[in-house]
């Protein structure tokens, strides 16, 4: 049993070490799923963060149903590979992601960062098509720095926060919400995946205590 678990974790680590250069061309149609990419060396610290995220899911993230863990691990790796090109903010902007204001979002539970949204992807609940890219921000200069998380958004069907019969699921995890309307954002559900920065609160937690604004 122990050997089997160790072997499985080793496989997850090797599969998830995916370099940015191995992902699909940015010009690929957003409906096209990311192809499998070759493994990177373990010297890449960003790759190692992704590996830890995948291992956490494979070993029992509390929000992932037991029967969904293998599929969640596979889909997280696909999401990470497909989003690697967005580590370059210019690529994200060129592909239609726009800033949601200039603020860095934070709470007593931690931070998120600065959000860039592609509105035509709202409701497109596919791992390789994140609605929002989340970047951390330099607390001193206020400059956008590194890609840290992906976020998927779905508008609430009845726009009533007291009901949740239309709550979506991805990676075997129910979305958070519904959340009240905020400015030009209707009542909505969302789900974060911290595939580019380790989150002590969990891969799918909304807030990351290591992110500072």
UniProtKB/TrEMBL annotation:
Keywords: Signal. It comes from the Bacteria. Residues 1-24 form the signal peptide. This is Secreted protein. It comes from Streptoalloteichus tenebrarius (strain ATCC 17920 / DSM 40477 / JCM 4838 / CBS 697.72 / NBRC 16177 / NCIMB 11028 / NRRL B-12390 / A12253. 1 / ISP 5477) (Streptomyces tenebrarius). The lineage of its organism: Bacteria, Bacillati, Actinomycetota, Actinomycetes, Pseudonocardiales.
